[in-house]
Amino acid sequence: MVSSPRLFWLLLAFLLAVLRPSAAAHDYGDALRKSIIFFEGQRSGKLPHDQRLTWRRDSGLHDGAADGVDLTGGYYDAGDNVKFGFPMAFTTTLMAWSVIDFGKSMGPQHLAEALKAVRWATDYLLKATAVPCVVYVQVGDAFRDHSCWERPEDMDTPRTVYKVDRDHPGSEIAGETAAALAAASIAFRSADPAYSARLLDRAISVFEFADKHRGAYSSSLHDAVCPFYCDVSGYEDELLWGAAWLHKASRRRNYREYIRRNEVILHAGDSINEFGWENKHAGINVLISKEVLMGKDDYLESFRINADNFICSLLPGISDHPQIQYSPGGLLFKAGGSNMQHVTALSFLLLAYSNYLSHAGGRVACGGASASPVALKRVAKRQVDYILGDNPLGMSYMVGYGARWPRRIHHRGSSLPSVKVHPGRIGCKAGTAYYLSPSPNPNVLVGAVVGGPTNTSDAFPDARPAFQQSEPTTYINAPLLGLLAFFSAHPDPNSWSQD
User: Fold this and answer.
1) Which residue, of 37, 414, 415, 458, has the greatest Cβ tally within 10 A?
2) CATH number of the domain that 118 lies in?
3) Is-catalytic flag, 274?
4) Would you indicate the residue range of the signal peptide (predicted)?
5) Mean pLDDT, the chain, as a whole number?
6) In whole angstroms, what is the distance from residue 440 CA to residue 463 CA?
7) Residue 13: inside a domain, yes or no?
């Protein structure tokens, strides 16, 4: 029941936004396949025989050797050649969450490929946490790397290794790494029980280190990790995030009690509507809310209330004090660079929460109004469709999907001639000519989703130097796996449960 004319018009505006028809039906299954292939283009280490992006070759084969450790493998986070552990761990957590909640919608082949993508990361994270009370958090001198434009196969900048330990703590990255290992242990529980158990055991020990030796890696390793992946929101959210995933993976009461004791941390700032590699608050609320909605833990009711408030802040025309804007073309927008990281992560939470509400027969309470699970799904689908081409430019922001997509992405390996075409080494500064060239990238990084429009005008410059718009990242794609899986299995809104 709408209680006032104002609420009626707000709800009408919201429905018009989410019911806007798509320009054309999308092949979400094809987009899912390509979004998984993207991760193969980000691989470091010795590539497997079934590598599908064949313009890539082995790289970083001696990572960690100078320090007496094996740190080969893992992912490059974006268009550079550094292995940043913080975003890699977050990417892993979100890929695993996609598999946990939406793996059944992927189909056997896509599920197997998604698990391969997760395992490429977790195999590396196991190496990075093999020494007790130590987490190796970065390979590569970011400043030196960013001064070059060279292929990962050619890189000759220092592969400096950075770590956190008892004397140099890093609770945010250790907490996120524990979350990634715990989430992945759930994802592999059926496919590989022994591997799943190994991941969970490691997650427990890494979390114990994160909690016992508290401190910020952004302080311990400030000169190496800032301003690239500097955590300005504090490490407390990663500790709760790690505990939440460990509770979900192990069902141990001590993690539930840890969450209860530390719940006040969620109220320490004004940013609980944030979710991304740097801030986990909204994700914590949504993840824990499932327990509440299923009637398993009324003690954590405050997390569900926080989740409702967060979800309401995303719904067009609902909130009196919205912290999210939408562009004229319908794209969710937050200030800062690489806007698609917000679009995919927040849309994933919308979809996950809508499913939790559906199973519990609930709705989102937004003051005097409310929204159904179906309404949440429509908002999430609108964002996915915008990414795939339903936008004012008619451009897909996923490379290789649709008729028109970004051709000059900010990505070294994609923009430089492949080793197969140009076997000779291309030096640090020799790549500058390719960086500045107006020509399209010679190698297609299939499935990469770029940063996209970073203002409310829906404009996009298809240019390498515009890195905030044209650079892809692993943490843009990770939550997209779950979104595309769901919509590939349920493309017709009429098939969703009714309001």
Assistant:
1) 414
2) 1.50.10.10
3) no
4) 1-24
5) 91
6) 9
7) no
